[in-house]
Amino acid sequence: MLTALVSVLFRPIRAGIAVFMAIAALFGGIFGFEKAEISHKKDGCLASFAVISDTHLTEANGRREVLEIGLEDMSKAKDKLDALVICGDITDHGYDSMWESFTLAMSRYDTSANDIMVIGNHDTWGSDDVAVTKANFIKYNKLATGRDISEVYYSTEINGYPAIILGSEGDHTYATVSDEQIEWFADEMEKASRTDKPVFIFFHQPINDTHGLPYTWEMKKDDEPGTGGIGDASDRILEIIKKYDNVFYISGHIHAGFSTEDDKTVYSSVERYDGYTLINSPCYMYSDFLRGGNFLNGTGYVVEVYENEVIFRARNFISGIWQPKYDETIELI
Ligand SMILES: [Fe+2]
């Protein structure tokens, strides 16, 4: 009965999306959209992965269906993705029912050989006991992706490229990062640097005072420095990143849309520094247009690694549209 009701309610969403896709296909060029399936931008791609963030799944309101449309888009990629990363706030509140909703969605689509979950602050709010929160993240990681982990931080490879996943061990909006995690991170970076390949770090919270923070957190002029970022551990993490070249730090959390430095807004999705680049993925489920950028939901990046560069390609996974205005190409050193 409930399933039937959701299905009926979901029909208008699908219909709306179909209309939007048809319009985009007709007039996409005018608006800077390109309707096309996922495939490599050019020859010589060595690895590619999708990154989305802040899916905020609940068991209701059609959110699972909205995620599933994006997963379907990824599963139909002409050039198969090597990974899918969901960069935190996977659930809206970390309850079992929400994790189950996510697990169900993931079970229905073959998006990539390496689906990667990152813990977000909302994912830690299912219990007052952080041991329960951690156990749930580990449990649903296994169920949704098949991965065995023992901590909320772990490492993997994306078609041979090092990927390091960091995560909060507490239940605050900022991140709680233990000394053990910092030491582990330093070791992982050292190991990764020996591959001489670009390194991808995923952490839900951005580095403090980047991407327009603290202002972009609640649009308050007098927010404390560090608000909306990692918190106390930010400086130590950044110091480790700065030791190496070709490092990409990918976050979510802010709930902005795509924006470039050319847009002249306080928020920019991508910030380039010597040796490292910070990328803030938009909120997949509901971007807040006040925070800057293009606020359509369903957005994220397809990241393509080439011999001499990494390309972040802005995509709306719901409508199957590239948004090349927000693409960023970073030359490797
Ligand atoms: Fe979020």
CATH 4th-level superfamily: Metallo-dependent phosphatases
Radius of gyration: 19 Å
- What is the terminal separation in angstroms? 57 Å
Q: What percent of the residues sit in helical stretches (DSSP H or I)?
A: 25-40%
Binned strand content: 15-25%
> Helical stretch count?
7
Total beta strand runs: 14
Total of domains: 1
Overall average residue pLDDT: 90
Reported for the largest beta sheet, the result is:
8 strands, mixed
CATH architecture: 4-Layer Sandwich
* Helix and strand pattern: HEEHEHEHEEHEHHEEEEEEE
Poorly predicted ranges: 1-8
Shape: globular
What does this structure look like?
By secondary structure, this protein is α/β, with parallel strands linked by helices. It has a single domain (38-331), classed as Purple Acid Phosphatase, chain A, domain 2, CATH 3.60.21. Helices cover 29% and strands 19% of the residues. It is built from 7 helices and 14 strands. The strands form 2 sheets. Strands 1, 2, 3, 4, 11, 12, 13 and 14 form an 8-stranded mixed sheet that branches. It has a 6-stranded mixed sheet with strand order 5-6-7-8-10-9, with helices on one face. Helix 5 links the parallel strand 6 (161-165) and strand 7. Fe (ii) ion (FE2) binds at residues 54, 56, 89, 120, 122, 253, 255.
